[in-house]
Amino acid sequence: MKTHSPRSCSRIHRRMxxxxxxxxxWLGAVSCARAPMTSAAIIDGDTLSMDDYRxxxxxxxxxxxxxxxxxxxxxxxxxxxxxxxRLIAKVARDEGWYERxxxxxxxxxxxxxxxxxxxxxxxxxxxLLTDSLLMDTWNRQGTEVxxxxxxxxxxxxxxxxxxxxxxxxEEVMGGLPFAEAAAKYTEEPAGKQxxxxxxxxxxxxxxxxxxxxxxxxDVGSVSQPVxxxxxxxxxxxxxxxxxxxxxxxxxxxxxxxxxxxxSMRNEMIARxxxxxxxLHQEYGVTILPGVVADLHRELIRRLVPEKNxxxxxxxxxxxWGDRPLIHWAEGDVGIGELKDYLGKRYHAFTVDTxxxxxxxxxxxxxLPRLLAKKGRAMNLDQAPDVVDQVxxxxxxxxxxxxxxxxFKAASAVTDAEIAARYExxxxxxxxxxxxxxxxxxxxxxxxxxxxxxxARSGEESFDSLAEAYTTRPxxxxxxxxxxxxxxxxxxxxxxxxxxxxxxxxxxxxxxGNKWSVIKLLEKxxxxxxxxxxxxxxxxxxxxxxxxxxxxxEFLARAKAAHPTIINERAAEIVYQPTK
Length: 579
Description:
alpha+beta
């Protein structure tokens, strides 16, 4: 989704004036009525809630705290944009955009994606992420532990890794201090320096097997070898204490669910695969192994280095026709559909690609249609969350295209228009005054003073001093010459340069932790830009003017057709506590 950066207050003022002339004050209503204080706006009877407004502000400004700190004018602009987008959606609906075949197809795609999420939550996540499990996790998070470990990383010889861990465990049990064993044996570089110390941590911050072992230890005890994806660990529990301050269970629930998803990833994958298998049975999906074997052999026969999987399939389908690869409840799926599926994805195919890889791709291809069929049978396309997300995504897709056609494309300007503006406003496109200096930048104020005195006395030329002493990157070979610059560059040094006379050498100037001595070489007066230099600036300004005018005309028509009331205080009060 595109985002729109906040505009300046002056632009807001200019746009408000433009809207006022075309359609009445933007902040006013079509009538004199005001929106209820609980709403940010009402567009033809549909409420834009303060919650939606806050959510959009938080998303645009990357957090509620940042949004709340913004000037009211910036928050007001976001509200204007939200109302404008809703008006575009209403006008587009009036004009039949939502019934166009491409958007009906897009809506179906969005629904299917929403159905997939709903089924995953219902059939895979929910049975695993029970309140009982989450409460157990939350209770465990009420305690934090302090532990150390010795890590033996996995290698090609896993048996040897396990044996090494067991041997060191016996040494520790025989009296070798754990910290000494960690410094001697651990394969975690940082652990050698710290004696394997991990510090304090809570449940959910470590590998599931690792933390399970930690929470099962008594303080002062050492675990037997524990295997994780990293390797084999020996764990020493040093201390345990209660967490003093933490969020409530309800406040933590979303974070608990995410942590559980991460720690139960393997269980979720297994449950998901089992559910997919059940759908294959329910809908009679049969991948035809004989045909797939024939296809695999044919692809291998046709394989040459310059041909990818899709090219091979295209050639094969031309020779075979749309030979069926799958039978299921709604008919056959042939090579043509596999080709279309691969046309949107990349899959490598080599002489080493097994037949099972083609079968896996076919299963992947079938999954969305199986989930869509199942979900629609369960009416999940009508689930409130799915409907809400589909509507928002479809609105946004149509808004973007509506803007492109009615505002962006229509606001294009020609080269002739740009040239005419350039000639009509000769004083509007000017280069700022600039200066050129030669600089010696050093780290020490005494050295800077000495070099300044030597340059002023003529004892040594500024060229040679700059070549010998300046530390500005890349400037020694240029004898300290800097590119011409306008006001605002180089902080105090740049400010000083604009007060000097040509040939003058400055006193040392503090620049952070460095010192600068400059010689003014040239003052470059303001001059008019050439047309090619000014054209980008002119084009942007003219297109913005045209677009603002087109939007103002659109809003006038849209608000006439869809009466709009905006809460005049919404931007001001949106983050005030509710009474």
